[in-house]
Each structure stands twice: as C-alpha cells, then as structure tokens.
Write a structure and sequence with these properties.
The complex is a heterodimer of chains A (about 120) and B (about 270).
Chain A lengths: L4 E6 L3 E6 L18 H11 L7 E5 L8 H16 L3 E5 L3 H9 L7 E3 L2 H8 L1
Helix pairs in contact in A: 1-2
Chain B lengths: L14 E3 L11 H14 L10 E8 L7 E7 L5 E8 L4 H16 L6 H15 L6 E8 L4 E7 L5 E3 L5 E2 L20 E4 L5 E5 L1 H4 L11 H9 L6 H15 L9 E8 L2
Parallel strand pairs in B: 1-2
Antiparallel strand pairs in B: 2-11, 3-4, 4-5, 5-6, 6-9, 7-8, 7-10, 10-11
Helix pairs in contact in B: 2-3
The chains are: A alpha/beta (about 120), B alpha+beta (about 270).
Chain lengths: ~120, ~270
Amino acid sequence: MSCNLSCETFNERVVVARFVRPDMRDALYDYEAIPDTALFKELDTNAIKPLPKGGTLILNFGLVDWFPTAFYRLLLRVREEVQAKGCRVMLCCLTEHVKEGFELMRGDKVFEVHSTEKRAVTAAG
Amino acid sequence: MSPAGHDLPPSSDSGRWFSPFSSGDSNDRAAWSKLCNLQRRILPQIAPVVPGYRLFLAYRPAFVVTGDYHDFFRRPDGSAAVFLGDGSGHGPAASMLMAIMRTILHTHDVHHEPGETLHAAGTMFHRLIPSDLFMTGVYMVLAPGGRVRWAAAGHHPPLWVTRRGRLFGTDLAPVGPVLGFEPVPYETVSWELDIGDRLLLFTDGLWDARNAIGEPFGRERLREHLVGNLDVPLADVVNGLLARVAAHIHGAEFEDDFTILGIERVG
C-alpha cells in the first residue's frame, strides 16, 4: 500500500508519481542508504518497477513544500535506477520552496523539469 | 597543506562554536561527546589571519557533529583559500562526508584555480562515496589587493556587499552541480573588492531555518541583514545574523547544521 504517493499510468509508457504530502521527512530521514527509506521503496514498487523499457517516470512535486538534501539524494538514486532500465525521469510542478533548493543544487542541469504535469506527459510522448 | 589550516596563524577572537548539547541528553552523552570533541579538533575553531582581510567564523552542528565543512589553506603561491561545504543530510552520517572531503583537500594537489579545484576534488569524491550521497561547496581564493576568485558546486555563491551597499552574488548561473554526482567542469568567478567590502559564505542551515509554521528565514532576510549593517563590525554582523535567525525560529533548536564565514577586505 502506498501512503506517500499517488501513481497513475498513461499510454502504458508513462508513469506519473505524485507526492501527496508537503513534508516527506518521516519517510526519508534515517541513516540508511536511500534504497532503504520508506519513500524510495514506495517509488520502486509503485512507479519504477512498473515502468516498461523506454518509458518515462514523471515525479509531481505539486504538494511538496519541504526539500531537504535527502530528497535530492532520493532523486539522484531514482534517476540512476530509471536510467539503468533504459527509461527517463522528469519532474513537474515544483513549488517555490522546492524550486529554491532544487535550483541551488543545480538540479535543473541534471533533470528535465516541466511547469505542469500535462506538459510533462506531452513531452514524454 | 597542513591540517586544518594550521599553517595560517589563528587570529584572536575570530570565531564561535556553539555547543549542540542540551541538558536533557541521554547516557550516550559521553560517547557522543568524544565524537564531538574529535571533530572539534579537526575543524578550525577560529578563522586564521589572512593579510589584507578580516575573517569571522561561526558554526553549529544540528546533532553532536556537523556535516558542514569549513577549512582554510595556504596555497603554493602564498595566497589563502577557503572551502565551505555541506554534506548531504546531517549528524554523524554527514560528518563522514566532510571527513572524506577534508582528506582530499589536505592530501592531494588540487589547489589550483577554484573551478579546477572543485572539478578535481569532486572527481575524487565521486569515486569514494555511494552514488546517492553528495556535498555542496564553495572554494574561494583570497589574494592580495582584494582579488578574490571562487567556484561553487550546488552551493549558494558568496554574497558580496560593497561598502556603498551594492549587493552581488545572487546569480546562480556560475554554480555547478553538487560534488559527488558526476565529474563536471566548474566556472571560476573573479571579483575585485575595495577596502571595506564584505563577503558572506554560509550553508543552507542558516537561511532554511524554519519557524513553527514552516516559514524559512530565507535568503532575502539574510541579504537584507548584510546590506543593512554596513557600519557594524564584522563579528557583530555575524552574531547579529545568528540572533535574528534564532528569533525567527522562536528559540527552537536549529534542525540543520549551519556555518557562516564573514570576510572583510581591510587592506
């Protein structure tokens, strides 16, 4: 069961994972590796594993208000897993607080970012 | 390079360390104290004397030890350099990252132009750590005559306020990706400071400190504080900033490590 995500599949090739709470730290903060965190496990089960080869994972940040470095660590790890499957990852709907931290860490140079989910889905083809 | 910038003479009254312990800590306190003390021994507690500049340092771990890393180096050409970084996460896990970066910066020939330094250090760091860990950082060279050069990796650029109150360092364009991600080139930025101009280097634990309703202190308040205190001594600017952040969070504990380094050109 997923309590941090709402996932939806489009055209059998695009999986959208929407984070459903503003503060995910209780699913991220521990001293284990990112794959052992609750949030990564949920993403892996509900969004990464269902991705077909050549598919796209879209992460929707519309409800997220807190972007600690652990969240960026999670994104880097997700990117690695998704690329290893021959897929790609996009982000959309970054809120002001998320955008501030994300751009400072130059996530905009590493990830493809779209302003809306619709645009991301369209770009994913 | 000798450990912890010890080849640069320490100045008097140029730094503050804030104890992370409160009176309610558990029986593990003794063990944590040892770890805390060890880190205090390897991190400079005060800023060194750098000809032509005045420096003031303050830092505080969020939990026993810090993932923030500050250090000072005398470079082969005689100029001084500063590194200020922030390991991902905080506490003991993040302190491992600062220890790795410290080893790289003290034991390898990486002290060249700032962009080259970050590229070389970042490449080694990338080889040594798991792919989901990283460090942000800024490396700055303080040369005679007010000439400073810096590069930044996923880290806020230094803020530069002139003695007339003009502010620079808000443009993120020269900032490259975080260290540890993948080896990439970093841009070196050159500035010429006049006497009285100030720089502020800091980690995100400062501006991201949040009050009870989740509102961060924010970079705008930080800039405003720097520009609004041009006639205040540098140490008071740093201490005043800490007081403002503490007031913002209404005396609650800082949730993240913070480090601030104020620099002023004096000659």
